[in-house]
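Archive entry. Fields below.
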Amino acid sequence: MTRLSWFNTVSLTLGFAFLYIPMVILIIFSFNESKLVTVWAGFSVKWYGELLQNEAFLNAAWVTLKVAVMSSTIATVLGTMAAYVLVRGGRFLGRTLFSGMIYAPLVMPEVITGLSLLLLFIGIGLDRGVMTIVLAHTTFSMCYVSVVVSSRLVTFDRSLEEAALDLGCSAAEAFRLVTLPIIAPAVISGWLLAFTLSLDDLVIASFTSGPAATTLPIKIFSAVRLGVSPEINALSTIMIAIVTLGVVTASLVTKRQLVRQRRDEQNAERS
Amino acid sequence: MRRFFLIAIPYAWLLALFLVPFAIVFKISLSDAAVARPPYMPQFDWVTGIGAFLSDLDFENFTWLTEDDLYWKAYLSSLRIAVVSTVLTLLVGYPMAYGMARAPSEWRPTLMMLVILPFWTSFLIRVYAWMGILSNEGLLNQFLIWAGLIDTPLTILNTNTAVYIGIVYTYLPFMILPIYSALERLDGSLIEAAEDLGCSRMEAFWLVTIPLSRAGIIAGCFLVFIPTLGEFVIPSLLGGSDTLMIGKVLWEEFFSNRDWPVASAVAVVLLLILIVPIVLFQRNQQKQQEADQ
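PREDICTED_STRUCTURE:
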């Protein structure tokens, strides 16, 4: 079938309109002159200017970025280890418990995860701040990383690793020289997923942050509770722009890689 | 030795930061507040031993949950909101997934990216975007008045309707993607065969397409239902004072009332309710994996 039926065209158009119109409206109104978010009073970028002078938001953004980089990096290391253990590790004591703990945080309601971590931090007397948010974010995002990485590990040919071992590699060398390059795309997308999850998280960060460290979502949430404001529209627009740029670039890069790969394969067939 | 560390490090991390914290929640849910702050009684004491510790724990907080009708009303209303929004998301998501699977194959990666893009955008911002649209002076009311459909603005923001809109909007990608991947693999010749054998288009859809995309539908419904049940952000931004959701109740119990033992009991009961759908979801995923192999 090369053409869409009218029904499919209508459902896709309405569906994508539903997904994108709210964000487009948000972006348009971030350039609104008026303080009232619902009345258009002319084009202006003044809210962007005010945003850049708002130190509380800038500080929160900086904390968020620090937390996201640290937690996604630790989560990628731990999550890759966990995935490797689950797929290649064979049997070991408590394996069922281990795989249970990998999958359970994915479905655990955020309010419960947040509450339980806060009670732990208070119980052991850890001061809440950047460190505790990093610990909390690492814990749930390592589970996402390990799901992404293990799905890649499952599909790849184990005999490549065995060949490396036969040719004299140690287990660590085989991992570094053979396994890691092959699973690298999954490790990278695991990192990116962990990074976005950390940037986005409000509930768990609210429970585990102290007065010393406020992340951007916490800041946005408390501002938004008071009502809609043009400054938040400007901030949202910046965030949407960054994400769109990132996702579009990533998809263009993978597309180009695919095209190159196909061309190489064709050349190889010809010669 | 190396293998030991490879297993031990992530294992220890999850034990310390996932299992132990949950055990603490469970313990506190069975404890009493001696004063309105930690530590909670009873405390484990090596001298009197584990017997005395266990006998001092009680279900008082859980009894309290059954006595104050706020809590079970909140659980029931969370369940109702989660079920209704799952059905609504399915009704919006299925036609979209169907349209995507039927689109020319060179469009599919782009359509797929368009579905995933909102997922990468901040959840909070996507919920916030609706606040300006749904308010009394908001764009939806302005549009409806301009179109002559209504005379006075409708109250949508701060009602359950706004919560439904917010949930359908933010969780739509979770519904579309599994259904799309089920429909994309569907062999078109099966539908042609059904039509050759005398089915109408509609009959072929009900008898062939829907059953063959069942695993995707089930996965999508669970992916929406499970997180919706404990949802906090959407009811607190879009819902009103009459919107009762257990995630919000837990949050307020903890941060406003500072009654940690009751908040912990609320969390334990929420988890007990979630165990059934989670187990069913995992079974569905396993069946799916076995079918793929």
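CURATOR_NOTE: The mean pLDDT of chain A is 89.
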